[in-house]
Amino acid sequence: MSQDVLTIPASKTIDIIREYSIHAYPHPRSYRDTRYVTFRETGGYMKELYQVYGRIVLHPTRDNLEMKLNHLDEDSKNRILSYIEDRKNDFGFEKPDKNYMFWLLEEKETLHHKPKLKQNTQSHQYFHYQDLKNKHELSSYKGNYSSSGVFVYDDFRDNLLIDKYNPILQTMRSKKTEHLRSEDSEDAITWNVFKSLQQINPEYWYAELISKGITHTTFTTKKQVHANQVPNELQIKLWQSIKPPEALLQHGTAEGATEVDIVIECEEFVWFIEAKYKSDISTGTKHDKERNQILRNIDVGSNYAVGRDFYFSLLVLDDKSSSKGIAAVEKYSRELTEDVSQFEDHLKHRTVGLSNLQGLTVFYWRDLAAIFKTCMDKAEDEFEKMIATRVFNWLGDKKIHIELG
C-alpha cells in the first residue's frame, strides 16, 4: 500500500460518492497526486478507502457530456452522467462558472474501525497508510507546494518510510534535512530504499542487486562479482564521508571529504553508488572544473578500497534525467576495459590504487523496484514482507515501475 493517503471532508457529498464511486470538485485544486483517498463524513469518520483509477475535467452544465465521455467504458460513463444529474437535482455545483475535476473511484477496503483525525478540520489532509490501518485516531502531516509545483513536507520525517527517528538524523547538516523534505528528494528515496533493504534478509536481494547493478548491465567489467553466497561481513552505509587520496592533496588540489550516497562493502569488495533521482551529476568541483562527480567518486573510492576490488555505479531514474552522468560512465567504462592508460589520464595524480578498479556501471531505480517485488514474493518473515511491499508501492507512486517482458 502507498504511504500517502489523502483525506477530504465530504459530509454533504458522502452519500452520492458512495452511490456512484465518483468525486468531483472545482478545478484546479492543489491536491497531491496520491493513489488513495478517503472521505470524512459528519463527525470526521472514514469508512472506506478508495483508489483513484481515472480523472477527467468537465464543465458539468455546459459541456457536451456524451461526446466528452465517449472514450470511457459504459459503466464509467453512466456513473459520471448519473452523478451529475443527481447532484444537479440535490445540492448542485457550487461554482457553476468553473470546470470540475471528476475522479473515478474504486473501493479498496472497508474501514471497519472507522478511523478519524485527532483534530478534525474542514481542509484536506494527508497521513500514513499504516496509521489508517492500525489507529482509531490519526495525525495528519502537513506541507506546501514549492513555486515549481513540488510538494515539500513541513517535517522531513513525514517523507521517510522507515527508521525516521534514527539518531544519525539528529546529527545531519540542516541543509541535508532540508533536502529530505522534498517529495523529489534523492536523499529521501535513498534512505527509504536502502534502509529498508537493511531490514530484509540479504538472501532475498543480494544476488539480484549484484546482477542488476554490476554483472548484467550493458557495461563490461574487468572482473565479475560472485554473488552465489552472501558475504559474512556485508554492510550498507549511507552518506559516508570519505577523505580524498593524499596524492590529490600533494598534487595541489584543495578538496574536502566526499559524501558517498551508498557504500556497500564486504571483505572482498567495495561498491560506491551515486544516487540520482531527477537530476544529473555535478560536472566539476570548486577547485577543478574537469573533476566531475564520477571521477571524484572513483578516485576516493579506489583509494578507500585498497586491498579489495572496487566498483562504482550511477543509480538513476532514466536516461534523460541523468544524461551527462550516463555519458561519463559509458566513456570511462569503455576506457577502463579497452585502454586503461587513457582512463588513468583523467586521474594523473594517482600512482597507486587504480588497479583495484574493476567496473563502472549504470543501473536504475526500477531495478530496485524489481528487487523489492522479489522480496515480497520470497520473504517468509511477515515483517520483512511488509517492508518490501511498502517500498514497492511507494516507488510505484513515484512512477517507478518494473519493466515488463
Description of the structure:
The protein is of the alpha/beta class and 405 residues long. 33% of the residues lie in helices and 22% in strands. The protein is built from 14 helices and 15 strands. The chain has helices at 14-20, 65-68, 74-89, 129-134, 168-171, 174-180, 186-197, 206-215, 246-250, 293-304, 323-338, 340-344, 365-378, 382-397; strands at 4-9, 22-26, 36-40, 48-58, 100-110, 116-117, 125-128, 137-138, 143-145, 151-153, 235-242, 258-265, 269-275, 309-316, 357-364. A six-stranded mixed β-sheet has the order 2-5-4-3-1-7. A five-stranded mixed β-sheet has the order 11-12-13-14-15, with helices on both faces. Strands 6-8 form a two-stranded parallel ribbon. A hairpin with a 7-residue loop joins strand 3 and strand 4. Helix 13 packs antiparallel against helix 14. The longest helix is centred in the first third of the chain and has 16 residues, at 74-89. It starts with a strand and ends in an 8-residue tail after the last helix. The mean pLDDT is 89.
Key traits:
405 residues, alpha/beta, six-stranded mixed sheet, five-stranded mixed sheet, 22% strand
Q: What is the makeup of the main sheet?
A: 6 strands, mixed
How would you sum up the global shape?
elongated
Give the DSSP E fraction (strand runs of 2 or more residues).
Answer: 15-25%
* Nearest-integer average pLDDT: 89
| Total count of helical runs of at least 4 residues | 14
What's the short story on this structure?
Helices cover 33% and strands 22% of the residues. The protein is α/β, with parallel strands linked by helices. Strands 2-5-4-3-1-7 form a 6-stranded mixed β-sheet. Strands 11-12-13-14-15 form a 5-stranded mixed β-sheet, sandwiched between helices.
